[in-house]
Design a protein that fits this description.
Strand 3 and strand 4 form a beta hairpin. This protein is an alpha+beta fold. The N and C termini lie far apart (about 55 Å). The protein is about 30% helix and about 40% strand. The longest helix has 21 residues. The relative contact order is 0.22. Strands 1, 2, 3, 4, 5 and 6 form a 6-stranded antiparallel beta sheet that branches. The protein has 5 helices and 6 strands; from the N terminus they run H-E-E-H-H-H-E-E-H-E-E.
């Protein structure tokens, strides 16, 4: 029993170590052969822009007419906006957690890209995020994270923040690739990617 627990602990530690890798910047972006595989897929993409301007505080209009309140005419729209504002406030506070000074907060401002993807079988994969920024025109940059023996549902986060964001501008077009053995097995791209 102890041997089984030790093996399980080592496997989980190996998966955790693979998932904690920081994205590294790739010097040259080369084209790879495309061999899409149904064993690998992107599930969801979450993009969040953290700007240096605070969120506008909107006042929800409370209905004053009791007949409209009873019908629920305004209740659904005001409650929906409150929920959306709460989630955006949480995302902002989550991204700025621990940044005390204005300089620390400035280094967190920018764009965050979260990609949720699935591997149906164990594989050694590289997740590559290629992007083009506003001030760099056609120059394509890339960041990537390598995973060993990964399977199941996973999340990879890429950041274009701080000086990189303020100097080079917003990300205008992007694509994210799952690469196995030098071949693209899954791809997710923005509308403006050519």
């Amino acid at each position: 029993m102890r041997f089984t627990c030790a093996i399980a602990l080592l496997l989980s530690a190996g998966c955790l170590a693979a998932a904690v890798n920081e994205p590294r910047t790739v010097a040259n972006v080369s084209s790879l052969p495309v061999a899409l595989n149904r064993d690998f897929s992107f599930r969801k993409t979450k993009i969040y822009t953290l700007s240096d301007q605070a969120l506008p505080h909107t006042k929800s209009k409370a209905p004053t007419d009791p007949q409209n309140t009873a019908k629920g005419k305004f209740a659904s729209s005001s409650s929906k906006s409150v929920v959306q504002e709460a989630s955006l406030n949480f995302e902002r506070s989550y991204r700025l957690y621990g940044a005390v000074t204005a300089a620390d907060q400035r280094q967190r401002h920018g764009q965050y890209f979260d990609f949720f993807w699935r591997a149906k079988r164990p594989a050694d994969l590289t997740v590559r995020f290629e992007y083009k920024q506003e001030n760099l025109r056609a120059l394509t940059q890339a960041k990537e994270v390598a995973y060993r023996d990964v399977h199941g549902t996973n999340r990879s986060e890429f950041r274009v923040i701080g000086d990189e964001f303020f100097d080079d501008g917003k990300v205008l077009a992007w694509r994210c690739l799952l690469i196995e053995h030098g071949r693209i097995v899954a791809e997710k791209r923005s509308f403006l990617w050519d």
